[in-house]
Each structure stands twice: as structure tokens, then as C-alpha cells.
Amino acid sequence: MNFVNELRWRGMLQDIIPGTEEQLQKEMTTAYLGIDPTADSLHIGHLCGIMMLRHLQRCGHKPIALIGGATGMIGDPSGKSAERNLLTEETLRHNQAAIKHQLEKFLDFNSDAPNAAELVNNYDWMKDYSFLDFAREIGKLITVNYMMAKDSVKKRFNGEYSQGMSFTEFTYQLLQGYDYVYLNKHKNCKLQMGGSDQWGNITTGTELIRRMGGGEAYALTCPLITKADGGKFGKTESGNIWLDKRYTSVYKFYQFWLNVTDTDAERYIKIFTSLPKEEIDSLIAEHQAAPHLRILQKRLAKEVTIMVHSEEEYNAAVEASNILFGNATADALHQLDEETLLQVFEGVPQFEISRDLLAEGIRPLDLLAEHTQIFPSKGEARKMILANGFSMNKEKLTSVDTLITKEALLNDKYILFQKGKKNYYLVVVR
To answer: What band does 81 get if pLDDT is binned at 50, 70 and 90?
Structure first.
């Protein structure tokens, strides 16, 4: 497979140095992409870069994921309005191990294939590099004028952002450039990839290699992913969508992809899955013929959730979605953990009652019309129950005399009531 063509049809190619495609067609090429280690989980903002490494390996080339341990201690000014917090070595090592574990779901690190992926950390070659040596050997090769001409630097100096830039941040592009020099020399790495906001830093690396008389050095970037309305991809009201389910539950992760617009789904299914072109074209045609079925969103959500989490967790997320939007069973509801239950029914009316009410059991009409306001009157509650239009925990409530006891509790704390098809109420028992 031709890697550049693969990126091109997927909408993942922005800038490319002339000769890059020819190099990739000539031989197995080692390429790297930098990952910021400021957290112990990646988020979906990292996914485009990770998918570039994945497609690279699928096309027979060797990917290197570079954890920016040294550069993470400084902070990249590209697209940032303020400096980042500086991290300790202990935190960086913890974050590196967690990120490697996530990357193993996308890349083959462990086989004996010649293009098995590698993980490196620039802290390992920068930690013993003295400032004097770096200034003498690297700093003298690149002029301040050259560094000032980069967009990431100009924006900070020209007042587009509110603050200036410290010397520490100013050196960032030299440090990133030296990473490329090091990998070019020690790993025969001939290609650096990244987001289009990294183009200035990446080309500083190719320039350093050229001025140091090094080997061939190429570069390509992917466009920054946005939403169709121009909004920032991957950001929600509650923050980033993380790949670690400690920070973003599998249910919320699945729902994010399920709820993207039709326009975004067409772009994202190319970028964030490994599905072949023919299959994606067929899915797009099917979707356009019947948009209300949300074929693209469902397939996108399935592919990405299985890739990041697992098929089992994807199935559980679908089950959880069906509880709210489909014909899920009472068993499925009882299997939900508390966090997912609250996420599924986020925003539905909630009522609190005392646990004492369930000690000896309470009649439905008393609970629904007196202790909560699910119904304005017992008469209305009675009428709907007897008309078979009311459910408790996904099972029809058919008698007004059945006592509700603590046996009805979900997660020993909740009772879910449903009026008709769409009106849910969550009773919280304190």
C-alpha cells in the first residue's frame, strides 16, 4: 500500500516535503511522531497522529512513537496561549508507561517483524546534555531570525495571544529539531510526522539535519481536525474525551462518536478507522440513502470503541444506549454499574425518598403521587398503570397493590420509572 495515497484519500495529508513519497516507495522507512506526556492517558485529540502511525505500519514502514519527556518538561508554544506546568521525572515515567499501554492497541510493538513499532523518550538523550554543549553544538546552527519566522513563535510575539514567551519555550523548536537529528543518526529515521501546527518545529529538524551534514530527512503533517461548524474536535462541556475509561467511561466515549453530525461522520470514519476505501464509500452511499438510520455514526462508534477499548465493552455500551433509546431488558438495566446508570439517565427528572419508606414496602400510588411528583394525582397514576403504560426498572407495573421494597433498588440506591415510551424518572433512595 502507498502510505501517502492512503493518507491523501483519508483526508489526513496537509503539508509534505518534496521527495517524501518517493522515499516511502523506495524502501521500508522509519518515521516518528511526538506525543506530549502531560497526562497518563491520551485523548481523542491524539488519535489522528496515532492513526498516522497505524497506517504507516500497515503500509510496511516502521513507526516510532516519541514520548516528549524532555520537551514535556518545557512545553510547546504551538497554538498555546500560556506556558504549561512543568512535570517531574517520576510523573513523566508513569505517564510514559500508561501511554505505551494505550498505544499497544493500535501498533505492533512486540513482534519480530522488521517494522515493529518502537517507543522512545527524548528525556533519555537530553537529560545528560549540558546547556553549554547544546548551545555550542546545536544553538549555533540556527539563527534567531529563522526561529522568529515560525508561525508558532510569531503569534506569541505579535500579540495574538495575551502573554509573551519565555526563553525556555523559545528553545522548544531547537529541542524538537534535535530529536529528529538524534533519531536520524541512531535509528535511521528519515521521516517526521505530526499535526499541521507542528510544521515549523518539524522543518527546524530537517534544517538541522541538513546543516549538520546528516542523512535524508523528510516531513509530512495531517490537518488539525475540527468539527463541521468550525468548533474544536474532541472537546465537550465536560472537557477532553479520554482513551482511559477512568476519565471518560466507555459509554460516554461511544456516545461521543454516535452523536457526531453526518458531515463529520463522513470525514471521521476515514480518519479514525482502518476500514478500506471501498467499504467506506459503500457505507457513505448507504448512509446518504437513509440518513435517519445513522449508519455511518453507528459504524464509526463501533470501530473506534472496539479499537480503543474492546468488543465486550462496546457491546456493553450499546446495551446501555438501548436502555434509553431501544427495547432493552430489565436484565440489561440491572447489569449497569452506578456511573454508567447515572450517565445514561443524565438530565432526566430525579426525586429523592427516604430508605425508611421501603422498609415494609410502599404502594405505587403513594410513591408516585405523594412522595414524588411523577404524577400529579393518584387517580392519574392508577389510570396509566392499569392501562399498561407504566414501567418500573424496565418491567411493566400492572398492579396498584404491589408493594415496592428495597428489592427493587438498582445498585442498592435507585429505582427507574418510565411513563410511556420516552419519559423517564429516577428515584434516588437516601
So the answer is: very low
Sorted by sequence, the CB contacts under 8 Å of residue 186 that are 6+ apart come out as none
Phi, psi of 280 (to 5 degrees): -65, -45
Q: Which residues contact 47 (CB under 8 A, 6 or more apart)?
A: 243, 271, 272, 304
Distance in angstroms (rounded) separating the CA atoms of residues 63 and 377: 66
Mean pLDDT, the chain, as a whole number? Answer: 91
Indicate the residue type of 287: H
E strands, 309-394, are 350-353, 390-392
What would you measure as the largest C-alpha separation in the chain, in angstroms? Answer: 88
**CA gyration radius, the chain:** 27
Query: Strand ranges (DSSP E) for 310-409?
Result: 350-353, 390-392, 395-396
- C-alpha cell of 31? 518515521
Copy the grid coordinates of residue 160: 495574538
CA 286 to the chain's CA centroid: 27
CA–CA separation, 319 and 350 (whole Å): 22
**Residues 211-235, mean pLDDT to the nearest whole number:** 87
Residue (of 353, 348, 342, 333) closest to 395 by Cα position: 333
Q: How many residues does the chain have?
A: 430
CA dist list (Å): 232 to 195, 226, 240, 301: 14, 5, 10, 19
* Closest alpha carbon to 16 in 28, 7, 25: 7
Instruction: State the pTM of this model.
Output: 0.86
Residue type, 418: Q
Count Cα neighbours of 396 within 13 Å in the Cβ-side half-sphere: 9
Virtual CA dihedral for 177, 85, 40, 252, nearest 10 degrees? -110
User: Coil, helix or strand for 392?
Assistant: strand
Which positions are annotated as active-site residues?
A: 38, 43, 46, 80, 84, 176, 197, 232, 235-236
Cell of 395: 418491567
